[in-house]
Specification:
The strands form three sheets. The protein has an eight-stranded mixed sheet, with helices on both faces. Strands 6-7-5-8-12 form a five-stranded mixed sheet. It has a two-stranded antiparallel ribbon with strand order 9-11. It starts with a strand and ends with a helix. It contains seven helices and 15 strands. The chain is α/β, with parallel strands linked by helices. The longest helix is centred in the C-terminal third of the chain and has 22 residues. The protein has one domain: 3-Layer(aba) Sandwich (Rossmann fold). The protein is globular and about 55 Å long. It is found in: Cytoplasm. Keywords: Amino-acid biosynthesis, Cytoplasm, Glutamine amidotransferase, Histidine biosynthesis, Hydrolase, Lyase. This is Imidazole glycerol phosphate synthase subunit HisH.
């Protein structure tokens, strides 16, 4: 069988060659592309981690990449997806990294006090960015947010810097949850393995527990691997994580290959 085509989404924020090389070593035909049609047509999609939440999601929105990813991964049998670092975060409803100050950009339908103006029954959901188009700036919980792809529920916020240096850079442990022990992406991945992180923001505690396959502690606990159906994400960089990272990329290529065979 031919190697699965894995689209590496290029939102013009950095060099993606290390991700592409890692996927190629894992057996994929890696295609770095900013073309929504090629993203939709791929056997698997990797959204890498470069730049800020706001810059990345607004570029994706303005160039049709957000819709391409959402269309491709929709449903339980959608295209396998792997988000890396920021790419994991963009799967979720909202983030506050890099959001312009009030007055520098147009907000979503605001009330006079700066909050999103909504019917009470919808307020809780939309205050987290649910049902808002990707890249929409809004205010809630005394913060300014930008909505992500919104495929998974939850927020991304900055790590605490009270005792530890932020950004969190270097090797750190990943601890599997019960869900993680059966996660196809983590097949053969040992509990407590060290992988390479470089980030200041991470998933907050409002994510769905069943979506968290592994956790890491740095100032607070955060989900370092997520899994929901055909959606996978790593807060760390597998392409920089030596043998453990190669194992994860190889597992993802196998997932994409099996999915292509099932849909043939």
């Amino acid at each position: 069988m031919d190697a699965p085509v894995i689209a590496v989404v290029d939102y013009h924020k950095g060099n993606l060659s290390s991700v592409a090389r890692g996927l190629a070593r894992a057996g994929a035909e890696a295609l770095v592309t900013d073309d929504p049609d090629r993203i939709r047509a791929a056997d698997g999609i990797v959204l890498p981690g470069v730049g800020s939440f706001y810059d990345a999601i607004t570029f994706m929105r303005d160039h049709g990449q957000d819709a391409a990813v959402i269309d491709a991964v929709a449903g339980g049998e959608g295209t396998p997806f792997l988000g890396i670092c920021l790419g994991l975060q963009l799967l979720f409803e909202r983030g506050d990294e890099g959001v312009p100050a009030s007055g520098e950009t147009e907000d979503a339908s605001l009330s006079s006090d700066g909050d999103v103006f909504l019917a009470p029954t919808a307020a809780d959901a939309v205050s987290k960015g649910a049902h808002l188009a990707p890249g929409t700036v809004f205010s809630a919980s005394e913060r300014r947010w930008v909505s992500g792809l919104g495929v998974l529920a939850g927020s991304c916020t900055i790590l605490p810097a009270r005792r530890l240096k932020v950004p969190h850079v270097g090797w750190d442990q990943v601890h599997l949850t019960e869900r993680g022990r059966i996660c196809p992406l983590l097949e053969g991945f040992a509990e407590g393995s060290n992988v390479y992180f470089t980030h200041s923001f991470a998933l907050d505690d409002d994510v769905e527990p069943q979506d968290v396959a592994a956790v890491t502690h740095y100032g607070r606990n955060f989900g370092s691997v997520v899994w929901h159906g055909n959606l996978y994400g790593c807060q760390f960089h597998p392409e920089k994580s030596s043998n453990h990272g190669h194992e994860i990329l190889r597992n993802f290529v196998s997932i994409a290959s099996r999915a292509r065979g099932a849909h043939a």
